[in-house]
Amino acid sequence: MASHQTDAKRMLDERGYTGPTIHNTNPLHLLEKPVRDRITESYYWKEQCFALNAATLCDKAAQLTYIGGTYGQQKPTPFLCLLFKLLQLLPEKEIILLYLRQREFKYLTALAAFYVRLTFESAEVYRVLEPLLGDWRKLRRRTREGGWRLVWMDQFVDDLLVKDRVCATSLRKLPSRMVLEDLGQLEVRASPLGEEIEEIDREEEEEEEGRSRGSGEAEVEEVNGNEHVVNGERSDVSD
Of 198, 195, 196, nearest to 206 (Cα)? Predict the structure, then answer.
């Protein structure tokens, strides 16, 4: 355990850090210092994150039962501690994608999505996370007050894509999708509801055409009726 703590402190040491970087910075510094300090002093970090590697962290993440940042007296959640451990381990990208795309453990998917948002390049963040916008699995979320809230995977991923802060973590600002499309880094995204929306539009157009035809026929009938009356009057006058 002492080695576990020493490794974390060594990586957090800002003096002459020469290890791998993410976005030109020490990966552990992607979390703010107060949060880092609370994580490394927490019971879960000291007892449950000891000697974890990419494989055993997967097993530990499979045991998660909620997501969240800090709660109560700024206590870090296991979810946030495992994110910090991932930033320490820096697994290969293929491993993170395996975490993300497996379907058995939804909290492992959420953890991998959070890691992707923090560490991948902007265009890749969109490409990797957008498929999860069609994932409607339910997640429990620990609130800052220590309570609980029900969210959905697509909602959590949307927060990662559009918000500047999620789970007590400040996120690097993403360029808008439109900007990346204009730069040729992303293809235009087809909405998963595109066909349904087109069908609704067709039905509305048909209904509008039906109303227009009905209105036109009513006007013709009214005009014909008026002409009949006029003709009748004319016949009365001619008699």
Answer: 198
